[in-house]
Design the sequence.
């Protein structure tokens, strides 16, 4: 759960209730654990020896389910990214107990107080995780990044790798990373800008104590190493997407941009946050002016993320372009197979095609089933995220009942007004039959109920 961090466990009881409400799995069935233990003992036999390549991982410091390791070298004017991805398919076979359970889950569910994994820990946090405590089997993508930032897939192989270091976003030093790491990220960002892409990565919200049972939501922006690391995954996923499309197969990540109504609502949200958004500037151009270090900008970035129609998955279909509006390109998910079911099958297809093999029938069939399975998993994850944010908001405002807040109407639905509180990253609804979008309202907090995760405002 990337939206809320709760180091003081202020939200503990509420999070327990969320787990119960959404039936978040607690552990795995015995037969799945037994199958995972047996799979973890499987010795790699089809893997080239790439243990001499100086791979490292870069993740949140506490992470143990490490999907990716990387090494970067110069290749003339290009940069060659060797991107090692956990070889989950080596351990999980189609139709086995672990695979069946993974199809039920779809993805790892994250909450501020822990996660419910897609795969049992013996695989996700040990045998398949690219930890630096010994050789691990991986699928290594060779991705060539040109001076203009364009990414091309040079090859895909099964290999044994040995990570040199488990680096953390909060503690990594420049000298720990490959020398070309920042240049590669710069090239990828330049290519994004050239094609008009804008990826919105809102900072994390953190519950902080103010004393006397008062709490607030503060923003923790993404660190530079975190943003640069995301560029590596982006480059690899773009290169894989082009390769799959060229062979008329694949499972693509697709997303439409915000519609006119959503953009109008965003303009009112910007007004509520006192962000000057010139009428002549479109949303993408305005997004490029945002600074995640600024709390108001951070709140608006979160609003943008919520404003879109949502991303989904689509198999290759003749005559249909699988477009991702935010990335402004063809895009796939292939770099987090320990956390997303779909990635395992995209990786298998890319490996087959890069090595002159037919895509397995089981993979092609999975591409047809995965959109529904992933949509179901994404919906549950989104509802859990929303519930956790609602909980944090009610905890933050609990005890402030009776106070008056200024809010801006961002949208109307009959007599119900959707409002953005000024200066706070909180969206709520109130009855306001005569309100108009853009209008400022004085609202009194009538109730902040952490048990029900609800806020109630009435006209002051």
Sequence:
């Amino acid at each position: 759960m990337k939206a809320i961090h709760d180091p003081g466990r202020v939200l503990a009881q509420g999070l327990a209730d969320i787990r119960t409400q959404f039936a978040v799995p607690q552990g795995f069935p015995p037969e799945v654990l037994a199958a995972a233990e047996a799979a973890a003992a499987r010795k790699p036999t089809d893997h080239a020896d790439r243990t001499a390549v100086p791979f490292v991982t870069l993740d949140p410091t506490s992470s143990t389910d490490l999907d990716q390791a990387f090494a970067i070298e110069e290749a003339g004017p290009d940069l060659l990214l060797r991107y090692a991805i956990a070889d989950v398919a080596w351990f999980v076979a189609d139709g086995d107990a672990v695979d069946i359970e993974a199809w039920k889950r779809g993805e790892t569910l994250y909450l501020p107080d822990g996660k419910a994994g897609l795969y049992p820990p013996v695989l996700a946090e040990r045998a398949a995780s690219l930890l630096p405590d010994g050789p691990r089997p991986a699928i290594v993508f060779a991705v060539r990044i040109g001076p203009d930032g364009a990414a091309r897939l040079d090859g895909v192989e099964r290999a044994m790798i040995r990570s040199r270091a488990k680096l953390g976003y909060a503690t990594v030093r420049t000298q720990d990373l490959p020398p070309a790491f920042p240049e590669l990220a710069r090239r990828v960002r330049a290519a994004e800008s050239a094609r008009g892409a804008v990826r919105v990565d809102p900072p994390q919200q953190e519950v902080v104590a103010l004393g006397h049972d008062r709490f607030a939501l503060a923003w923790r922006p993404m660190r530079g190493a975190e943003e640069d690391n995301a560029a590596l995954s982006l480059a690899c996923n773009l290169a894989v997407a082009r390769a799959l499309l060229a062979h008329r197969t694949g499972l693509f990540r697709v997303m439409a941009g915000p519609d006119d109504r959503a953009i109008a609502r965003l303009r009112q949200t910007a007004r509520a946050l006192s962000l000057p958004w010139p009428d002549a500037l479109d949303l993408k151009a305005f997004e490029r002016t945002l600074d995640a270090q600024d709390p108001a900008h951070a709140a608006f970035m979160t609003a943008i993320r919520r404003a879109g129609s949502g991303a989904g998955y689509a198999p290759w279909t003749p005559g249909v372009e699988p477009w991702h509006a935010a990335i402004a390109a063809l895009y796939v998910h292939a770099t987090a197979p320990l956390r997303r079911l779909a990635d395992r099958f995209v990786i298998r297809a890319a490996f087959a095609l890069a090595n002159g093999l037919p895509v397995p029938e089981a993979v092609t069939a999975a591409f047809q089933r995965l959109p529904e399975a992933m949509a179901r998993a994404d919906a549950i994850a989104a509802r859990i995220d929303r519930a956790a944010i609602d909980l944090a908001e009610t905890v933050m405002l609990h005890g402030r009942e009776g106070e008056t807040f200024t809010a801006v109407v961002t949208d109307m639905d009959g007599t119900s007004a959707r409002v953005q509180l000024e200066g706070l990253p909180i969206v709520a609804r109130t009855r306001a039959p005569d309100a108009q979008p853009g209008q400022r309202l004085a609202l009194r907090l009538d109730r902040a109920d952490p048990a029900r995760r609800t806020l109630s405002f009435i006209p002051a």
